[in-house]
Design goal:
This protein is α+β, with helices and mostly antiparallel strands and about 425 residues long. It folds into two domains: about 180 residues, Beta Polymerase, domain 2 (2-Layer Sandwich), CATH 3.30.460.20; about 200 residues, Methane Monooxygenase Hydroxylase, Chain G, domain 1, CATH 1.20.58.340. About 50% of the residues lie in helices and about 15% in strands. The strands form two sheets. A seven-stranded mixed beta sheet has the order 2-1-3-7-6-5-4, with helices on both faces. The chain has a two-stranded antiparallel ribbon with strand order 8-9. The radius of gyration is 34 Å and the shape is rod-shaped.
């Protein structure tokens, strides 16, 4: 359920609520220009002002929100609005973008895989200024490592651009992190689909419910981010240049695709749950059919045995020497005829198995394989790669991929 740290009723705006178990802040400063880059950990916040320069871009990354004094000191240095600091510290907030004088506040949620199937998400807040970007994270996770690695490449577009392009790169890295998460969930759904049809078990229902909860968390994070990125692309903003807007259009396309995949996976989970219920009901019907056939076979046998088991003195058949074998022959004939009749009707044998399979497939909702389309959409998605896996990036003079075709050698799967 939704839980948010909020001040007491009637508290003044800008009140910060820091829990006792919050991690102490770790401040990392990265300053770069086309001809240099410097990265260091900051122990004294007061020294940050010495590194600010209009000739370079400064990125300050704060991991941990457990020290109000440090956070307020940082807010005083950069003149952060109290309402912006409240949105940064009192997590979680709805993803959004708000403009405060000469600063742009961007709140979004980053997700990552923990282990094989566990998903961890956290709020990442960003303050964009004329020549600086400040990011705030709840813990010490590192969802932005790819951006730092790109800064180390001397001829990268990131090194040649301003703070608005750095803000775009951070948003793009957060959106890209959704792809491997959705791919893993899609693989889990594909594995569960076969088991739901062939071996329905109550544990499968629990796994499906777990995946549905994770998809709901992703949907709550992704849907508001669509509006966030759309506003950055289309709304008037003096801090966001035309080049950054052009690349943000590509990020907006990615978040739309991620949203569609999440919806398809949710429909697939619901369909698989319906398939599970149908499979369990089908197996129950099969058991009842076997029991009914066995009962039908023994009804005439019980009838014959009941007649000749009555204690009457005058039953002429009992005195005949061939009466006993005749009763056996009659009972065996009844059983043989009924088995032949049931098989002819297709109620037992191979015909019954085929009919049952056809009935089960007919009852299975067509959306049960919707995640197959989602996986194929993820697998076939090719976009210009902006992560650290490439040895170098195109120089800043190269036109963005929106203006001319991108070389096939620079196109990779977005999920890689």
């Amino acid at each position: 359920m939704f839980k948010k740290r909020h001040p007491k009723v009637g508290a003044r705006p800008g009140t910060l609520m820091i829990p006792a178990d919050a991690l102490p802040p770790q401040v990392r400063l990265i300053q770069y220009a086309p001809d240099f880059v410097r990265e260091e950990l900051i122990d004294d916040i007061a020294h940050i002002e010495e590194h600010l320069s209009e000739a370079s871009v400064t990125w300050i990354n704060v991991c941990g929100l457990g020290d109000e004094k440090t956070l307020r000191q940082l807010a005083d240095i950069f003149s952060v609005h109290p309402l912006a600091m409240e949105d940064i510290v009192n997590v979680p907030q709805r993803p959004k973008a708000e403009l405060y004088d000469d600063q742009q506040l961007i709140v979004c949620r980053a997700v990552c895989l923990m282990g094989e199937s566990s998903i961890q998400d956290e709020q990442v807040s960003m303050l964009l200024g004329p020549n600086y970007v400040i990011t705030f994270q709840e813990d010490y996770s590192d969802p932005l490592s790819s951006v730092r690695q790109r800064i180390q490449i001397a001829d990268s577009r990131l090194r040649q651009s301003g703070s608005d392009y750095l803000a775009y790169a951070i948003l793009d890295a957060i959106v890209d992190a959704y792809y491997p998460v959705l791919e893993t969930l899609g693989d889990n759904l594909e594995r569960l689909e076969d088991n739901v049809i062939e071996h329905p078990h109550p544990s499968l229902l629990k796994q499906l419910n777990t995946i549905r909860q994770r998809l709901s968390r992703l949907r709550r994070a992704i849907w508001p981010e669509r509006e966030l990125i759309r506003s950055l692309v289309h709304d008037e903003n003096p801090l966001m240049g035309e080049q950054a807007r052009l690349f943000l259009r590509d990020t907006y396309d990615h978040i739309l695709q991620v949203t569609e995949v999440v919806d398809m996976c949710r429909e697939s989970v619901n369909s698989l749950m319906n398939s599970y219920i149908s499979a369990v009901g089908h197996r129950t019907n099969e058991v009842m059919k076997v029991l009914t056939i066995m009962s039908s076979i023994f009804v005439p046998l019980t009838f014959v045995a009941g007649i000749y088991g009555m204690n009457f003195e005058h039953m002429p058949e009992l005195q005949l020497p061939w009466a006993y074998p005749l009763v056996w022959m009659t009972m065996i004939s009844c059983v043989t005829f009924m088995l032949f009749f049931f098989r002819r009707k297709g109620w037992i044998g191979n015909g019954a198995a085929q009919a049952s399979l056809s009935q089960l497939m007919a009852e299975t909702p067509p959306g049960a394989t919707a995640h197959g389309l989602a996986n194929s959409q993820l697998a076939e998605q090719t976009v210009p790669f902006s992560g650290p896996a490439l040895a170098s990036e195109p120089p800043a003079s190269a036109a963005p991929h929106g203006d001319q075709p991108v070389d096939a050698s620079l196109r990779v799967r977005r999920v890689s």
